[in-house]
Amino acid sequence: MILGSLEQCVCSYREQRMAGLWRSYQALITRRPWTVQIITAGTLVGVGDVISQQVFERRGLANHNKIRTAKMMSIGFLFVGPVIGGWYKVLDKLVTGGTKSSAMKKMLLDQVGFAPCFLGAFLGISGMLNGLTVEQNADKLKRDYMDALISNYYLWPPVQIANFYFIPLHHRLAVVQIVAVVWNSYLSWKANKI
């Protein structure tokens, strides 16, 4: 009986802490949406790289490549966050409204127009930061791009339809980046495999 009450107390405390963190995030994103979106994107790209190294590549903590994680985070801070955050603003101006039809149009524009370009740029920037020559980077893009794009189409269309239909503009990047922890793990693995 006492153990059950203690477990209930611990769960309640955790729920209160999570709710408090969420309220703090809401307040910050209301005051500084652009900054919070960029910090969120960079952090979660870094988390994706850590997962890639520890789960997919099984490097172990002793062999974790911290420089690689820092490079991936810099891509998140300087490229992913600003580009995707800006794209969502443009997309909301191109296709207005919150209907299912407008969500479908946004998803199609996002996946047909934006995603292929973004993915190529992401892989190219990763190659450049990893010290690949222009020729090596081009070869890597030829080898990995189509596989990454096809993988993109398995994951992102349903996520984006839900994102564009249910989620307010200032939370879209965060929602995408939460889902993208798995995607970023895959991209980090893809971008950094030899």
Shape: globular
State the helix count: 6
- Count every beta strand, where a strand is a DSSP E run of 2 or more residues: 0
The Rg value, from CA coordinates, equals 19 Å
SS strand fraction: under 5%
Largest sheet: none
Q: Report mean pLDDT, rounded to a whole number.
A: 90
* H/E series: HHHHHH
Name its key features:
single chain; 194 residues; mainly alpha; 6 helices; 88% helix
Task: Describe the protein's architecture and organization.
The protein contains six helices and no strands. The N and C termini lie far apart (56 Å). The model has no long low-confidence stretch (mean pLDDT 90).
How are the SSEs ordered, and which strands pair?
Layout lengths: L1 H30 L1 H24 L9 H29 L5 H30 L4 H33 L2 H24 L2
Helix pairs in contact: 1-2, 2-3, 2-6, 3-4, 3-6, 4-5, 4-6, 5-6
Short structural description:
This protein has 194 residues and is mainly alpha-helical. It has helices at 2-31, 33-56, 66-94, 100-129, 134-166, 169-192. Helix content is 88%, strand content 0%.
